[in-house]
Amino acid sequence: MIDAIDLTKELIRRPSVTPADAGAMDIVEAALAGLGFACRRMKFGDIENLYARHGSASPNLCFAGHTDVVPVGDQAAWSQGAFDAAVVDGMLIGRGAADMKSAIAAFVAAAASAIGAGGVKGSLSFLITGDEEGVATHGTKLVVEALAAEGEVIDHCVVGEPTSAETFGDMVKVGRRGSINAEIIVEGTQGHVAYPHRAANPVPVLVEILSRLNARVLDEGYPEFQPSNLEVTWIEVPNQATNMIPGTARARLNIRFNPNHTGAALADWIAAEAKAAAEGFSGRVTVVPQISGEAFLTLPGPFTDVVAAAVRDATGRKPELSTTGGTSDARFIRALCPVVELGLVGKTMHAVDERTPIADIRQLQAVYERLIARYFEAFAS
Fold first, then answer.
1. Residue 184's beta-bridge partner residues?
2. For residues 136 and 72, what is the distance between their CA atoms, to the nearest angstrom?
3. Domains of the chain
4. Catalytic one of 10, 48, 68, 369
5. Dihedral over Cα of 224, 131, 16, 147: its sign
6. Any residues with CB less than 8 A from the CB of 373 and at least 6 apart, and which?
7. pLDDT by residue (tens digit) across 190-235?
8. Please, which residues bridge with residue 243 across strands?
9. Which among 352, 362, 341 has a CA at the least distance from the CA of 165?
């Protein structure tokens, strides 16, 4: 059997800040190989990925997660070493304790229990990446594309992101809003403020573009989703002089959108508003969009029922099925199969002294054990 706490500590002690792996994937692979999983390393660029499967029959229940973590920040502000995996007053402290090395360890331990009890009436698999906290270009996205091209069938997937809001087990994510970033670059002609006819000021054009974009109410929400929102995140006018019209002005924005929209449609809208605002301007306006993911929803049904029942079995709580929060690798996995996210309380993720109660890790393992059991009861023929 595998102890989830010991395995979590081993993983935390590997400083796997994206894109570094620091041996974290080796630890996961060794644990799964010891349980009889067929392990396959899938390296893209500098990123280590792992797909491991136990069994060949269907249905195939997959657990997805990531071993990479965000930077420590100010190490001096931490009460313990960020990679020491210290336990203080029942709390496991370390980068990745909540997001999400504990969840990987809990599911490995749950898989060990299920395999040992003969409870896997199909297949269990793991899709683990080292590129979730970064730009996510060489991680789950490419693994999913490769598996799909090979005809690998994953029937359902659980992502171990920290989804609980206040108390462990109070929330399961069944969907996520989409995300699009856009950079707007307005290039004019630099000149003296006393001679504006010799210049083309990009600032009023940029202000007009942002005003047009902010004036639109994107929507009032969507069933199971909150309203879409646009946020201007950065504005730059590289000009240190008070008597000079700048030559360039730039801005960045992000839109988190529900299924009322697609990333492509929003990109077209931003470009159209930029073009309209720049009418008569002698300079140039460039819009560079980047779609991080589309909105998706796993509809209520037998799979979400199994997940909710597993949480109730182990915690006594009825979890809220939610679509709140940011993006995750579930946005890529949904191309293969229905996907939900279920994990620890996320309040300290990415924070100084990131931590999670030891008791919550044990309880998460219990939830995963019940989920595996209920899953094969419900879906194995």
1. 251, 287
2. 19
3. 4-176+295-379 (3.40.630.10), 178-293 (3.30.70.360)
4. 68
5. positive
6. 114, 119
7. 999 999 999 999 999 999 999 999 999 999 999 999 999 999 999 9
8. none
9. 341
Return the structure tokens found at 122.
């199909």
Q: Give the separation between CA 176 and CA 380, rounded to whole angstroms.
A: 28
Instruction: Report the C-alpha gap between 10 and 120 in whole angstroms.
Output: 26
Distances (CA, A) of 220 to 214, 228, 257: 15, 8, 11
354 has catalytic annotation: no
Return the percent helix, strand and coil in the chain, to nearest 5.
Answer: 30, 25, 40
Annotated catalytic, 132? Answer: yes
Q: What is the mean pLDDT of the chain?
A: 97
What tens digit of pLDDT does each residue of 119-153 get? 999 999 999 999 999 888 999 999 999 999 999 99
C-alpha–C-alpha distance, residues 27 and 12, integer Å: 11
Place of tokens 């899709």: 127
Phi then psi for 185, rounded to 5 degrees?
Answer: -120, 120
- Polymer length of the chain: 381
Give the CA dihedral 321, 103, 255, 223, nearest 10 degrees. Answer: -10
Dihedrals phi, psi of 150, to nearest 5 degrees: -85, -10
Q: Is 277 exposed, middle or buried (0-12, 13-18, 19+ CB in 10 A)?
A: buried
- Indicate which residue of 10, 132, 273, 341 is catalytic: 132
- Cβ–Cβ < 8 Å for 345, 356: yes
DSSP 159-218: E----BSSSTTSEEE-EE-EEEEEEEEEE-B-EETT-GGG-B-HHHHHHHHHHHHHH---
- Among 6-15, 127-136, 305-314, name the one with the lowest average pLDDT: 127-136
